[in-house]
Design brief:
The complex is a heterodimer of chains A (207) and B (203). Chain A has 207 residues and is mainly α. Chain A is built from eight helices and no strands. Chain B has 203 residues and is mainly α. Classes of the chains: A mainly alpha (207), B mainly alpha (203).
Amino acid sequence: MKPKLNNSNSNLPVWSSLLLLAFWLWPSTAGAHQETGTVWGFTSGFIHPLTGLDHITAMVAVGLWGAFLGAPAMWVLPVVFPLVMAFGGALGVLNVPLPGVETGIALSSVILGSVVAFAVRPPLWVAAVIVGSFAIFHGHAHGAEMPKAANAMTYAVGFVIATGLLHLSGIALGLLVRWSWGKKLVRLGGVAIAFVGFGFLFHFISA
Amino acid sequence: MNQNHSSLRRWLPVALLLLALPATAGAHTAVSGVGDFFGGVLHPLTTPAHLLVLLGLGLLAGRQAPLNLKTPLAVFIPVSAVALWLTTTGIVRTVYPPILIGIALVAGALVALGKALPATVIGAVFAVAAFVLGLDSAAETGTAISTAKTLLGTWCGLILAVADIAYYLSFFTKQQWQQVGIRVAGSWLTAASFMILAFALRR
């Protein structure tokens, strides 16, 4: 019969030693060249949409609105957005000037947050046009702000995946509309997103 | 439950030590040091542009239930073999990268559209992709045997990658939301490919 392994306290020094050893062996040299290459490109692209509150709120709002409108809008909008965003991204990469990018991004949070807050239910094509128009501004910003050293291929993959995951987060939150309290919560989320958008809008106008 | 717990405790130190292994050592191990054949097998998986194309092909072949790989593989296997053989003649050493990305874009767009496609369209996409992937997989210069082993490995790697992605994807085509997920993945692939094309044009 095996003895019981219940002596967790007696194992503590062993564990702490192992943990210390793990940290000690952690490869610090790998960070020496982190600003170039495939992995850095992906990381940089993935992090880019997650570092700006204006991007995050608009992406989540797309998902929230999609979920609010139900099928087929729930998946049409997250399909339309990255496709049009890529077009905007290409404009940014090619240095094609687009006026009012930052204002457009802020406005996207205001409009998308408002349509969620007021539970606006336009025809699908209207919703797709609204979402697509704002996607150009977001894409342009991502494309124009790409770090010079980053791997272009993995940067693009990273930022598309991050954007898509933000949409999915919005959809997941938006699925709360099945319940009446959830509907109120989602609309409240729309109000919050619109307010954040207003904040950015006033910031850009007053700057 | 206790047994699971104790085995977890037994393996955790090993996992920790594996985690602590210096990652820098892995910087060049993806292909080198694994031999010619396995280096060839890993080649498509370690080339981002190839991976994008293979992902697009896998999504295209595996998105519809029931899984039918007959047409795609009947085209992909011989065409990729011919293209890989052509690399030994030295006529083409590499392919202009935007061509590869363009194929990924087309495959992604077809997946995002979500329409049923005739076998000729699927066959054409797989034929072009197999030819371009094969041409872009020239082996490093070496002995004839080493080149043959590498190309054979690459051939196996390409076929396995497409078939595996399609096969495992076919488990996720039963529910409507799963098919929607595949279309969303197709749109992501299209968007990423479009951006990469723009980067390539800028240079």
